[in-house]
């Protein structure tokens, strides 16, 4: 995946979220998601924070070298890590501060395209810092894309008419999960990309058949929280 494709993947991931939430009324924005305790508007606020973080990082280049890449970055965010519940509560209260849930959509609709434009303009050979780490620009974009794809799947759990995430950002997210697996691990042949991502992210539990096919690799799941 080249640097140019990485910024295209992020733009497509964010565009997919925008397309879905722009068509929702306030009632739909209060539907549940796969993220415990979060409504659609709450989860959108969380992803909005990612887009804002992207703008800050891309406007603040630093010297290398990188200390993590697009895969090892995720190992600092192990499932069940401390702080997750506190952040979930903060995001929900922050989203609830808007007069209407659609207020989150308006800010997202301004911020997400700006983040995508900043990603397209960034030096693909440069380095940025975010969340205490230094990453190459393309690796930062890949982490943002992976998170956006996973949260898109979280977002649409009760929106059956929503299309699947676009193919390019999905490939980025799948490549991230592949990188987090052991080198000799092979995902079950019956899993499509959506099932793989949901199970790798702990959104859907492994079945007994999954555990049989994965063998010792089942102990790696979920790969991210």
Automatic annotation (TrEMBL):
**Lineage top rank: taxon:** Bacteria
Entries under InterPro entries matching the protein:
DinB/YfiT-like (IPR034660), MDMPI_metal-binding (IPR024344)
GO molecular function (one): metal ion binding
Gene3D superfamilies, sorted = dinb family like domain (1.20.120.450)
| SUPFAM superfamilies in UniProt | DinB/YfiT-like putative metalloenzymes
Give the Mycothiol-dependent maleylpyruvate isomerase metal-binding domain ranges: 11-155
Report what the protein is called.
Mycothiol-dependent maleylpyruvate isomerase metal-binding domain-containing protein
């Amino acid at each position: 995946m080249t640097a140019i494709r990485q910024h295209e993947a992020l733009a497509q991931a964010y565009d997919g979220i925008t397309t879905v939430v722009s068509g929702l009324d306030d009632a739909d924005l209060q539907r549940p998601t796969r993220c415990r305790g979060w409504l659609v508007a709450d989860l959108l606020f969380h992803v909005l924070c990612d887009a804002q973080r992207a703008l800050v990082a891309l406007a603040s280049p630093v010297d290398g070298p990188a200390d993590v890449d697009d895969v090892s970055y995720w190992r600092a965010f192990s499932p069940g890590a401390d702080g997750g519940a506190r952040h979930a509560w903060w995001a929900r209260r922050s989203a609830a501060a808007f007069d209407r849930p659609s207020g989150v959509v308006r800010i997202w609709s301004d911020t997400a395209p700006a983040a995508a434009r900043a990603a397209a303009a960034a030096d693909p050979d440069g380095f940025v810092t975010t969340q205490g780490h230094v990453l190459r620009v393309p690796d930062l974009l890949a982490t943002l894309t992976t998170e956006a794809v996973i949260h898109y799947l979280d977002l649409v759990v009760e929106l059956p008419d929503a299309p699947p995430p676009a193919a390019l950002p999905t490939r980025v997210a799948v490549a991230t999960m592949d990188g987090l697996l052991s080198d000799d691990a092979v995902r079950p042949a019956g899993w499509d990309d959506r099932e793989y991502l949901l199970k790798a992210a702990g959104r859907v539990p492994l079945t007994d058949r999954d555990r049989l096919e994965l063998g010792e690799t089942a102990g790696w799941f979920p790969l991210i929280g």
